[in-house]
Amino acid sequence: MRFTSLKELDRSEGTVQLQHHSSSGKDSIVLLPAPSKTDPNDPLRWPTWKKHVAFTSVCAFTFLTNYAIGGLAPAFFILSIEFDKTMSEISHLLTWPILVLGAFNFFWVPLANYFGKRPIFVFASLLLCVCYIWGACAQSYQSLLWSNIIAAFAGSSTEALGAAIVNDLYFLHERGAKMGIYMNAISGGNTLGPLICGFVVQSLGWRWHKWIAVIFTAVNFFAVLLFVPETRYDRDWSRAQLEASTSTSASASEEAVNAEKTAPTGVKMVGEPSDEPNAQPPKKTFAQDLSLWSGTPPTNLFKMFIRPFPMIVYPAVIYSFLCYAISLVIVVAVNILNPFILQAPPYNWKPQINGLINIPGLLGNLFGAWAGGDLVDMFCKWRTKKNKGIYEPESRLWLQIIPFFLTGAGCLIFGYGVQRVLSWVALFFGYGMISVALAACPTITMAYVSDSALPVNSDALLLVNGLKNIVAFGFLYGVVPWVEKVGYVDCFGTLAGIFVAIVGIGAVVLIVFGAKARHATAPW
Questions:
Q1: Cβ neighbours of residue 162 under 8 Å, at least 6 residues apart?
Q2: In Å, how far are 6, 60, 292 from 368, measured between CA atoms?
Q3: Sign, CA torsion 9/15/18/22
Q4: Closest CA to 402 of 361, 446, 440
Q5: Dihedral sign for Cα atoms in the order 214, 215, 220, 223
Q6: Where found in the cell (predicted)?
Q7: Helix 457-477 crosses helix 424-452 at what angle (to 10 degrees)?
Q8: How many CB atoms are closer than 10 A to CB 346?
Q9: In the beta sheet, which residues pair with residue 20?
Q10: d(CA 476, CA 102)
Q11: 3-state secondary structure (DSSP) of residue 444
Q12: What percentage of the chain carries pLDDT values higher than 70?
């Protein structure tokens, strides 16, 4: 088997010319990756509405996976009584699905790279709906647990592939904001789900939480079936990226400048390589977009399965999955534990009131997604302009300082608030601050991974999403015995220390040495 280096696929190694200073004195953004000049079926050339509808449908799929599985948390106290299970056993309704959500990325992503993303999304969204019907009808703890596990198997298809679709549909300068929206869909399911579930459980019972999810997933299945075409596109990365970098530099030749076409919004379209066929392929019809078959690449499926694993040595991948894992651990730990805190003495809250703790969680998610997406994009634009139009992916990592301080402090506030039986206000503020990380950290770091390894971003993101859930499962499987043994202060104090060490030290090291590491590892 012949291995290919990232440098052979992308000569820019992540460092690209993103802004072009024209003779008129105005800066324009260079579209990267360079869209096809002749092919109307290039997803980067789709109408804006078509991109947004497809992206929204996938985000809804991602949201509903977490909405029905993680959203059941306010019912844990009631379920422990109904099924006569301990707090640790009931927590398995969430911890085992978390493991499956990560592990089966290694199953879905190679299949999607080989057969296409569309057939995977269509099949998995239907399976998710069927699993929620099963869960709503479950009459035993084991049946409910397995319905959640199989639902997580279906939903795991969107963990890495959803992020990869961002790179299929949008340009580099749009990627941060769109990744923020995608991360809000993931984290929003874990906050809006419990918030709604609290009221549903109190009024209608926990089964209706599942039936509501059935209705939404059925609608989403038809949205995916009708409005998510195949986004996989055979793009010649080495040529497109090389031309994008050379034709927009200050020393670009006159021929390259003549090949450029400037859009009316001040965005510069880079001409396609000169040896691209001039004949324009016919635009696919709506009926053709509905096809579940888009061909297979000239390789075998086995190679697709093993191809991602060598990338585990890339510093960007290691940093991203560790940041995502510890952010997920802290948020889910609060989700698992808070029903047993707030629905028991001395608080004695009802499930619908318990669910209100997710309001600060939702606000934290929204702020984190904005900070990690739009704010980072604005910061990167400023840094790129300051750097004479040259964009470095490490520019994104500077704003890791926001979750570094907020989430670290939030862990301490929540831990002390529970152990010292402080007002619910302390718990709410602590959880809101903790929730910032679950949206901000992966938005920043996954965009950083995509920028650093764009031609193979789906494989790189597979490692990030798969490994973070496996690591998170290891923590969360033992979080209840851990808290019972050492208390909330020591538990959440330790989590705070791990979080700030990973996020802080990793960001500093990569800001200083990240560019050198990218260029050093690209020929591997």
A1: 58, 59, 61, 62, 182, 185, 186
A2: 31, 19, 36
A3: negative
A4: 440
A5: positive
A6: Membrane
A7: 150
A8: 6
A9: 28
A10: 14
A11: helix
A12: 86
Tell me the pairing of strands 19-21 and 27-30: antiparallel
Cβ–Cβ under 8 Å, residues 276 and 478? no
- Which residue in 75, 88, 34 sits closest to 238, CA to CA? 34
Q: Which residue type sits at 12?
A: S
Structure confidence at residue 261 (pLDDT): 37
Q: How confident is the model at residue 251 (pLDDT cuts 50, 70, 90)?
A: very low
Q: For residues 489 and 486, what is the distance between their CA atoms, to the nearest angstrom?
A: 8
Q: Where are the beta strands (DSSP E) in 238-321?
A: 261-262, 267-269
Closest alpha carbon to 220 in 46, 113, 50, 65: 65
* Residue 254, pLDDT above cutoff 50: no
Instruction: Provide the mean pLDDT of the chain.
Output: 84
Model pLDDT for residues 127-145, shown as the tens digit of each residue: 999 999 999 999 999 999 9
Calpha distance 96→84 (Å, rounded): 19
Beta-strand ranges (E) seen in 55-155 are none
Q: For the stretch 142-169, what's the b/e string if a residue is b when 16 or more beta carbons lie within 10 angstroms of its beta carbon?
A: eebbbbbbbbbbbbbbbbbbbbbbbbbb
CA distance 307 to 314: 14
Q: C-alpha dihedral over 103, 108, 114, 120, to 10 degrees?
A: 180
Degrees, nearest 5: CA angle 449-320-127: 85
pLDDT at 9: 61
Place of tokens 């699993």: 131
- Cα(195)–Cα(355) distance, integer angstroms: 4
Exposure pattern of 500-513 as b/e (b: 16+ CB <10 Å)?
bebbeebbeebbee
Conformation bin of residue 91: beta by default, left when phi > 0, alpha when psi is -120 to 50: alpha
The pTM for the full model equals 0.79
Of 209, 211, 190, residue with least CA distance to 200: 209
